[in-house]
Predict the structure.
Amino acid sequence: MDDKPENANASLADRSDFPSLERKYKGHTLSYFDGPAGVQVPRQVIDRIVWYYSHCNANVHGYFVTSKESDQVVEEARRRAAEFLGASGPENISFGANMTTLAFALSHAVGRHLIEGDEVVITQLDHEANRAPWLGLRKKGIVIREVKMFSDGTLDYEDFEQNITKRTRMVAVGYASNAVGTVNDISRVEEMAHHVGAWLVVDAVHYAPHLLIDFDELGADFLLCSAYKFYGPHVGILCSRKGLLDQLETDLLRTQIQKAPWRIETGTLNHAALAGVSAAVEYIAALGDGENFRACIATAMERIRMHEGILARHFYDGLKEIAGVTVYGPSFDDPLRAPTVSFTLEGHSAAAVATFLGEQGLLVWAGHFYAIRAVEILGLADRGGLVRVGMSVYIRRSDVERLLDAIQVIASGKGGAS
Ligand SMILES: Cc1ncc(COP(=O)(O)O)c(C=O)c1O
């Protein structure tokens, strides 16, 4: 459980919990640095999904045992997600296929309450999933204002301030950048948004696996995340401030429960996956300890922050020593930063670097990761984007060393990338 830098084989989680870590490719152990695109799943989560299908697979709101148990599975997932996110209770939590689908559902609903000339603020740094749903409102005459980012991947808060006006109705911002690891100052944005009476929607997809979220404290009106980034299955989560969803004109059948949290959910949910969401939150809680479940989550997230932060910093420092490497994103001297490090290597495309590393079982991502606007602003869109390396609870220092060595091989011209 501890992360002593001298122990290169220490990971925060028990690696034997993750069946996929045993997989080999061309004789290489796989090192999964692709966490920002989705992490590996522990046996506890897999078992819970299998349990659901083998024990109580049914539709909800029925009169028989398996249906009633399915109701409990869904309710339990709302309760666990609320505990994970620091929200008051299950009534705050709605589920959907993924974050993007929920963001579109939210923007359609919010859009019905806006009139021509109303304004929505988005940022250059955000993933398209927190931009496109709002940009789509332009068709209704809504003005979309885009906040600038600096070349170090941080937001320009003065520009933010200037873009928030009396006509602003919604501010959409990410909690952490999945492209370069920036953590945004949400308290500052919250103040600016609420000062003019606008709503604030926070994309916490990249933040949730790495740092503790306290929804009630944060003051956001809506927060979105995705369980497959925090050791769960592919499920999107929308956390809404009490009473807000009930005011919105959502897309819903007249047969659907009309109140929050059901009000924005469409069709039958993925019950088996929701069982897995509870198991994922419980898995994280078991990495911590404390007097109650939320305290376990809080200590677990602190341990995750420390473990991943140490690894990311070590990787970042090592990368900077390699000739031809340019590292993007804020420095690791920032008190809050996601453990996601992106870089380019002179003379080699990001795809070629990722392919070379992938052949050695070092799984890293390359491209724009759907944060395409940020990659455009960095001037890398037509140059193949970035190589992205993410830390997770099962990564060890030895994985990072292996990765640094392999990048060094490419940089010194002995590797096959181009
Ligand atoms: C920061 C961020 N926002 C949104 C998304 C979209 O999430 P989903 O795949 O659940 O739609 C992602 C996915 O990578 C992401 O990293």
Observations:
- Residues 1-5 have pLDDT under 50 and may be disordered.
- The pocket of pyridoxal-5'-phosphate is lined by residues 37, 98-100, 127, 129, 174, 178, 203, 205-206, 226, 236 (CB under 6 Å).
- The CA atoms of residues 104 and 133 lie 5 Å apart.
- The first strand starts at residue 24 and ends at 25.
